[in-house]
Amino acid sequence: MTALPGAARGAGRFASAYGPSAVLLALLVAGWEAWVRAFDTRPYILPAPSRIWQGFWETKHLLPEHIRTTLGEAVLGLGFGAAAGVTIAVLVAGIPLVRRVLMPLLVVSQTIPMVVLAPLLIVWFGFGMTPKVVVVALWGFFPVAVATADGLMHADREMVGLVRSMGANRLQVLRYIAVPAALPAFFSGLKIAAAYAVGGAVVGEWIGASSGLGLYITRAQTSFRVDRVFVAVVLIALLSMLLFAAVHVLARLATPWMYVRTEEETT
Amino acid sequence: MNAPAIRVEGLEHTFRQKGREVRAVDGVDLEVGDGEFVALVGPSGCGKSTLLRVLAGLLVPTGGIAEVGGVSAAGRPGLVAYMPQKDLLLPWRRALANAALGLEVRGVPRQEARARARALFGVFGLEGFEQAWPAQMSGGMRQRLALLRTFLVPSRVLLLDEPFGALDAITRRGMHAWLQGVLAIEPRTVLLVTHDVEEALVLADRVVVMSPRPGRIVDEVAAPFARPREPGIVTEPAFVASKARVLAALGEGEAPVGAGEERTAPGA
Ligand SMILES: Nc1ncnc2c1ncn2[C@@H]1O[C@H](COP(=O)(O)OP(=O)(O)OP(=O)(O)O)[C@@H](O)[C@H]1O
Ligand SMILES: [Mg+2]
What we know:
The structure holds two protein chains of two kinds. By secondary structure, chain A is mainly alpha-helical. Chain A has helices at about 5-40, 50-60, 65-95, 95-110, 115-125, 130-155, 155-165, 170-205, 215-220, 225-255, 260-265. In chain A, helix 3 (about 65-95) packs across helix 9 (about 215-220) and helix 6 (about 130-155) packs antiparallel against helix 8 (about 170-205). Chain A starts with 5 loop residues before the first helix and ends with a helix. Chain B is an alpha/beta fold. Chain B has helices spanning about 50-55, 95-100, 100-105, 110-120, 140-150, 170-185, 195-205, 235-250; strands at about 5-15, 20-30, 35-40, 65-70, 70, 80-85, 155-160, 190-195, 205-210, 215-220. In chain B, helix 4 packs across helix 5. Residues about 255-268 of chain B have low confidence and may be disordered. The complex binds adenosine-5'-triphosphate and magnesium ion (MG). Adenosine-5'-triphosphate (ATP) binds near residues 47, 48, 50 and 213 of chain B. Adenosine-5'-triphosphate binds near residues 24, 46, 48, 49 and 50 of chain B.
């Protein structure tokens, strides 16, 4: 054990993990600012970071409401998507006929561009929250379903044999082997879904909404406030990271054994 | 009805994989009485693990009979406590939960199952590691945990596939003493696979020798002295003679030795 207290060690690890990215990002932003000033680029073509900050400051009283709406849609959609994904995964992994029939259809479903589908969803579900949640769920269920089905189907056969030799029935095999074995895969799928969830909600809002970052972008565009578009882009990135990090924390809590070795090797 | 604990007759098994056929066991006959301890030795790949997997109900043989307590084991798991060659600890369960798995599968309440498992951690040299993840344990510790888990499976018949293979000589001797002690108090039927002829003769009533693949039984040697045995017996002439006979049957030693004849161990 090192003499450093846990918090300090954690902070040190955080700095060494994300420090280089932060430095690179700072350099890029500084370069961007310098470029815009040197060449006097028009703000409706490319606003400087300082201009974007100003745009953020001007609209900061509007933003919490939009963020709440978008994040709410993203989280709800992610929840429904994950639930649908797990259900499909169980069916696909458990019933060979379902696997053969459903798998190709699922892949095809992912080739439909969401910008085409979103207006239709608004026709079907109205302008409220529902069509946005549906977009996020439609986007999110696929990685969850594919990863979870994979995890369920690749449970170690010898481990299954071990609990069967103890007299386990099918349900117990599921409980003691298949489900825990599939959890890490499920969380991998959920992380991918989480990374796209906020973007999905914004696409849904972009077609038509009464609140949310998608609406904020539409308004900014119609008034040629490119700086505000960038404000929304940065917020979408931050919210996506937040959601991703939340899923990561959830994964650590639900599958602690997956993090035993890495912890030892990095300290 | 007095069926033997284990009865194997004319057992054969051929693995088929993409047109390739491997005949693993070929006409094995074996009977193990209730409370008897039989050790199975044979060259690598001769089908020892295959035989155990058939008896554990995990592999349906392509021919012959395999019964546990008079019931056919073919495709009927749950009749025995089986310790596979790989430790197969579940990475998502801590040591204590792994040990209690067999009891929990049989419906023993979790609290009680874990209390019973905890009580044995000291004996198996695992004290203080109840909350460790399998990934944090050494190979020898994992193997002892797997043996502990097998022992807690409530079944009178134990099938142990090289349970001490990963242990050093001293730990192994400690485990031998413990195993003999436990079996003296609570007798169980044991079929043990091992590569260690001395281990086989120290622990078992009878040592069964298999031929190279496809495995058949080529000899059977009764171990001298009554159980439980002291480790010191390995230098006794009767023990050495039995060992020479087993090694001969394995094709590793000299010609078989007649009963009662006194010989020194070859190459010892
Ligand atoms: N699932 C399988 N599919 C195909 N062949 C197999 C399978 N399992 C075992 N075999 C083959 O059957 C033969 C016997 O294997 P088995 O594992 O029973 O040997 P063993 O006596 O336990 O050997 P060892 O002492 O090395 O553990 C081997 O040739 C092996 O390659
Ligand atoms: Mg084997």
